[in-house]
Amino acid sequence: NVKMQEVSDLPAYHFARISQTLGWAVVWLWASRYLDRDSAIDPWSYHVPEEYDSIERIFLWIVSLDFCFQLIVAKDKKRFLMRRQSLLDFLTLPAFLMIVRLIVLLVRWFKPDIGDVNPEHYLLNFGFIRFLRLTGIEPTMSRVVPWLSPIRRRLISIVFGLSSILL
After folding, report:
1. Which of 50, 69, 77, 140 holds its CA 20 to 30 A away from the CA of 115?
2. Hey, which residues does 45 pair with through a beta bridge?
3. How far apart are CA 159 and CA 65, in angstroms?
């Protein structure tokens, strides 16, 4: 555990974590270009390239392993799990995705005519959550510019978050 703690204190490890978040940002921005709908009340149509699924799974593995590593080296496990960044990470972990899939199955079982609810696109819909790890600017943006659509606020938050790291 001491060796793992030493690794977690290295600047290279922190750079890798930032790179991981920035990489996910790039993938999400790339894939979100393929989302479209006719009007605001219509559901999104997903025409993402085939490669997206493989790339998403790679990032899920990376995030999962990193989360487990951080949990192992955390001195106070309870405090680690209650941190904002840990909660944001948890929302994009496969365990949470399994819960989402289970809820979708239960909803379909009780209400088969629910329509198109696809848990496959959970990360594409909620991948912006990973960006909140950068600065946590989304709540501020919703208070400052409440008249903007949530998608535009998220995109502006992403730009601000990326800028804060790059500048």
Report:
1. 50
2. 36
3. 27
pLDDT of residue 79: 92
- CB atoms < 10 A from the CB of 92, how many? 21
Q: Answer yes or no: are the C-beta atoms of 54 and 21 closer than 8 Å.
A: no
Rounded Cα distance, 52 and 59, in Å: 11
Helix axes 11-32, 51-73, angle to 10 degrees: 150
Where are the chain's structural domains?
A: 2-133
The whole-number pLDDT of residue 34 equals 82
Give the side-chain half-sphere CA count within 13 A for 70. Answer: 20
- Is the sign of the CA dihedral 107, 95, 136, 155 positive or negative? negative
Determine contact, residues 7/24, Cβ cutoff 8 Å. no
Q: Give the per-residue pLDDT at 94.
A: 74
Using CA atoms, how far apart are residues 117 and 74, in angstroms rounded to an integer? 37
